Amino acid sequence: VVGKATVEAMNISVEERIATIEANLERWRWLSNDLGERYIKVNIANFDLQVIEKDDMVFSTEAIVGLTTRKTPVFSSIMKYLVLNPDWTVPPTILNDDVIPSVIDNPEYLAEKDLKILRIDGTEVDPLSIDWINILTTGFPYRVHQEPGPKNALGRVKFVFPNQYSVYIHDTPNRNLFGRTDRSFSSGCIRVNNPMDLAAWLMKDNPAWTPAQIKNVIDQGKEQIVNLASPIQVHIVYLTAWAGDDGLVYFRKDIYDRDQTLLVALRQSPIGPD
Question: Who has the most CB within 10 Å: 68, 161, 226, 234?
Fold first, then answer.
């Protein structure tokens, strides 16, 4: 649809496009020269996940990334295992910014989302016994937990690659958002549109884990950790321009407003010796 965004894109000058390429060349310089013979690449600015094997893209799917207020970080790690039918403990940021305000607005919110409040010993707490208005100032001594199931925020599979940000790739029960052009809706983790296909590809080195077996375990509804026979590197990148195999240069919106800051830094004179 030709609209305001289309006109804005058409009016970006050649000089601005060249500057964008310059910024992204610098980002590529930060990456390792050896990304791995096979690896997963998530481009935050392109809202996608790709699996690369021997320089060829063998899998691709749409992704949802972090909001501008909860940005997905840029880093590399190694995916070692996945979790089928994961449970979920609500992290502090989501608890304070999303869950507690939602409960104040709608007392049925926890029940609607299949969320339970648990003490440290695992016993359940009645939500009606909590002073939700003042809980943020007094401190929340419990954890909010969601069992595996169709409403679970992580969906039916979670892909784990240890990192300092507690970020992972996962399924989602809310699939309608994948139809959007701008897909920055998460709290920092990466949601993918075809998680079962990704799981099947990752498990192809283990003959016992066929797509049918994965589905069978998921249908049972119990959480199960599955170690990858071949761990794989994961690279979370932020590229607003790149060259395709077809020789064309592709540009994307700078959703986190990072290009200009990087360009300013690149153009500063280096600090010489005293």
Answer: 234
pTM of the complete model: 0.89
Three-class secondary structure of residue 208 per DSSP = coil
In the residue annotation, 235 being an active-site residue is answered as no
Which residues does 258 contact at the CB level (< 8 Å), separation at least 6? Answer: 238, 240
Q: Is the pLDDT of residue 158 over 90?
A: yes
Distance of CA 104 to the CA centre of its chain: 28
Whole-number Å distance between alpha carbons of 23 and 253: 13
In the annotation, is 191 catalytic? no
- For 104, other C-beta atoms within 10 Å of its C-beta total 13
CA torsion, ordered 252, 253, 255, 261, to nearest 10 deg: 90
Residue of 64, 99, 189, 262 marked active site: 189
| pLDDT tens readout for residues 160-179 | 999 999 999 999 998 899 99
* Continuous segment of H or E residues that includes residue 17: helix 14-30
* Residue that is written with structure tokens 């884990």 in the block: 209
Tokens of 183: 């897909």
Q: Which long-range contacts (CB under 8 A, 24 or more apart) does 126-133 make?
A: 127/103, 132/100, 132/103, 132/104, 133/104
Alpha carbons 237 and 41: distance in angstroms, whole number: 7
CB 122 within 8 A of CB 151: no
Output the DSSP codes for 35-59.
Answer: --SEEEEEEGGGTEEEEEETTEEEE
In sign, the C-alpha dihedral spanning 171, 175, 178, 184 is negative
> Please, which pLDDT band fits residue 122 given cuts at 50, 70 and 90?
confident
Among candidate residues 41, 156, 170, 235, the one labeled active-site is 170
Please state the rounded mean pLDDT for residues 105-115.
Answer: 91
Res 274: pLDDT: 58
What CA dihedral angle connects 191, 76, 228 and 197, to 10 degrees?
30
